[in-house]
Amino acid sequence: MMRRIVTYIMAAAIVAGLAGCRQFDVDEILLEQEAVSLTIKGEPVFVYDENKCQLACNWNRNEFRAMTDDMSDYFILRAHQQLSDLGQEFTADLIYTTASNVREETGLTFTIEKIQNGSGLIWLWCSSKKIGVVVRML
Fold first, then answer.
1. Pick the residue with more confidence: 29 or 45?
2. How far is it, in rounded angstroms, from Cα 123 to Cα 87?
3. Cβ atoms 34, 119 nearer than 8 A
């Protein structure tokens, strides 16, 4: 009986490994980014390139935008409150482009994971959806 239980546990572990169960970590996905970006479950969706992109923000409306010059790719983050302190949790809506359409995620809970005063960069993490966003205060 014990051998059967051990066999089932080992089989389940192997199946889970083969099925691609990946753990996504804020350090791995988000904090390594050094540019304005949007990363979802470890995959970069948008990475700012100063030669091809533009940034815009309206801190009175708590809105940040990053887009390519031709607007073919972009993301918009609308926070429901002002971003201020490290560790702050806040709710936001996110609109972004994919290869085939525009996606919208509403009511996401983000945490401010890192603030770099010199560059104005702010690293944001949504643990429930494994979404990392780096924005720049302009």
1. 45
2. 10
3. no
